[in-house]
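Title: [Solved] Thioesterase domain-containing protein 3D structure

Original question kept below for reference.
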Amino acid sequence: MSEGSAQRTRTVTWKDYREGVTAAKQLSGLEYLRAMQRGELPGPPIAELLGMGPSEFQEGRAVFTVEPAEYHYNPIGTVHGGLAATLLDSAMACAVHSTLPAGASYTTLDLHVTFVRPITHDTGRLTCTGEIIHLGGRMATAQGRVTDASGKLYAHGVTTCMIFRPSGAGT
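Solution (posted by the thread starter after getting help):
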């Protein structure tokens, strides 16, 4: 076995996400997201797996960060594009979620990502900001940007989300 092929190990732990799913039905989207950020509700397991976390939630805006690492790499020696895509999907969808009343939910209908430059573990901490573009009764759109500490752009995207409102809440 060559020196560079030494096996690495990473252990991932997370809390039971179902408590958060139950609470989400009782809280506005912004209240729910902020409760997760404060650690009062468990975050999603995918965030623990990828090492990403929320840093800011405002109405219509969500910000996540991640430190790219070797365990994010693809076979050609750079961070897999799925990391930027997951950051964008999370930030843009949470920007939509932050505008919803208690009992409403959403799902991503489409996600378009443009990769601008490669990401490596030397890139340093990445910040992904998602912001709402349009909020309608049944659909919302949002945009997002993945940047490094100096503001250099690595990827950007747009999404469309379908909104599910409780019966009698209007359209």
